[in-house]
């Protein structure tokens, strides 16, 4: 794989400036909120899922106080009132062409946000999901205008300081991700990314990335270290330019995004992981999709969360992560893995236990049960 940094000396000089720029601003994140930065995605593409009330009881028992849904289901929004759980909601992709109209965006906020807030602690609005990596140019062009309109509606209603507007991105927005210091966006996305990043910067909203080391391993299991992608002990890798050491792929992916953002002339934008997970079952060609690997990945990730860790590039900024997903969803299309990311079955039994029941939001000294002891076959 060719390194971006191996090009002309001017490239090295630019990288030096980027690194200095990023490191100097990293200290801004040293005094973040002290609550847990762990959330979980609550997908609902199933015909046998528990009621929202039961979901709240489950999340409360697990001491999870952040979740994300993929719509604005009024039953969910109503049920989550006074639950103490922060909620990110989603504007579905097909609605974006309507949301570019400021009046339609205002009507949407008046219907789907204002009646529930603040009893339901809506903290974010995702405008679509993984749109920039679709082939629909009209849809892509609508993302930022829709975000601007929705943010404008929040401003008009005095809600903009409580609710941030962004969109969740696939890692495929990157042209380069290895080594992390070579992180850059695809050339054809530079124009739209510039607009998007300017919006995030001006509104102090986060950049959300869906980071799945599983896909990297599945696509090339002979070259990608399983221990590296599972957060298991391994030699890791050193970025040859920054000299930063990476002992897992997810942190390297996040830092690649941070570098890509800086290359676009922006810095200080927080990068959060809106989705990450590992399937417990897959088709025969889905290498690594096993219940054992899923348990190890999520267990090790939870341990990292309890350490208040940041990435090597931003060690003082605790990385906010949303696990995917709460439940196995039997109606999701695609390969078998798509229906088997859940930590729980729809009947509320564990697919496997990663120790979530021992999590505490007030102490980072909790010991998680070893994944090798709690896997349920």
Automatic annotation (TrEMBL):
Q: What class of enzyme is it?
A: hydrolase
Q: Name one GO biological process term.
A: carbohydrate metabolic process
Gene Ontology molecular function: any one:
glucan endo-1,3-beta-D-glucosidase activity
Q: Which Gene3D superfamilies match?
A: Glycosidases
| UniProt key word Hydrolase | yes
Question: Do the record's keywords include Hydrolase?
Answer: yes
User: Which InterPro entries does UniProt cross-reference here?
Assistant: GH, Glyco_hydro_17, Glyco_hydro_17_plant
Q: Which keywords describe this protein according to UniProt?
A: Glycosidase, Hydrolase, Signal
Q: What is its EC number?
A: 3.2.1.39
Query: Per the record, what are the reactions this protein catalyses?
Result: Hydrolysis of (1->3)-beta-D-glucosidic linkages in (1->3)-beta-D-glucans
Write down the Pfam families for this protein, in alphabetical order.
Answer: Glyco_hydro_17
> Source organism's superkingdom?
Eukaryota
Family, per entry: Belongs to the glycosyl hydrolase 17 family.
Identification of the protein by name: glucan endo-1,3-beta-D-glucosidase
Q: What is the lineage of its organism?
A: Eukaryota, Viridiplantae, Streptophyta, Embryophyta, Tracheophyta
């Amino acid at each position: 794989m060719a390194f971006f940094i191996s090009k002309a000396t001017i490239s090295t000089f630019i990288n030096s400036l980027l690194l200095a720029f990023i490191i100097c601003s990293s200290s801004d994140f040293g005094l973040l909120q002290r609550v847990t930065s762990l959330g979980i995605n609550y997908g609902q593409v199933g015909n046998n899922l528990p009621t929202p009330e039961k979901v709240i009881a489950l999340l409360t028992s697990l001491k999870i106080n952040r979740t994300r849904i993929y719509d604005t289901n009024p039953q969910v929004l109503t049920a989550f009132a006074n639950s103490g759980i922060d909620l990110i909601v989603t504007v579905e992709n097909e609605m974006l062409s309507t949301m570019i109209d400021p009046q339609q965006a205002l009507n949407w906020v008046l219907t789907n946000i204002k009646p529930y807030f603040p009893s339901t602690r809506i903290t974010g609005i995702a405008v679509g999901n993984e749109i920039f990596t679709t082939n629909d140019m009209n849809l892509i062009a609508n993302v930022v205008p829709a975000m601007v309109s929705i943010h404008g509606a929040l401003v008009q209603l005095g809600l903009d300081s409580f609710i941030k507007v962004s969109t969740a991105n696939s890692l495929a927005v990157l042209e380069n991700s290895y080594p992390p210091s070579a992180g850059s966006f695809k050339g054809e996305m530079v124009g739209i990314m510039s607009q998007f990043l300017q919006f995030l910067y001006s509104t102090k909203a986060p950049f959300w990335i869906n980071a799945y080391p599983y896909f990297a391993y599945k696509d090339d299991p002979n070259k990608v270290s399983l221990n590296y992608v599972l957060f298991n002990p391994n030699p890791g890798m050193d970025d040859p330019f920054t000299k930063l050491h990476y002992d897992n792929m997810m942190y390297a992916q996040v830092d690649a995004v941070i570098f890509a953002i800086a290359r676009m002339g922006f810095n200080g934008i927080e990068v959060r992981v809106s989705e990450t997970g590992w399937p417990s079952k897959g088709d025969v060609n889905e290498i690594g999709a096993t219940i054992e690997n899923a348990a190890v990945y999520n267990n090790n990730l939870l341990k990292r969360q309890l350490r208040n860790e940041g990435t090597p590039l931003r060690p003082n900024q605790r990385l906010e992560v949303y696990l995917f997903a709460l439940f196995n969803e039997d109606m999701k299309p695609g390969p078998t893995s798509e229906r088997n990311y859940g930590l729980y079955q729809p009947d509320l039994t564990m697919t496997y236990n990663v120790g979530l029941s021992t999590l505490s939001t007030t102490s980072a000294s909790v010991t998680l049960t070893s994944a090798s002891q709690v896997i349920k076959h």
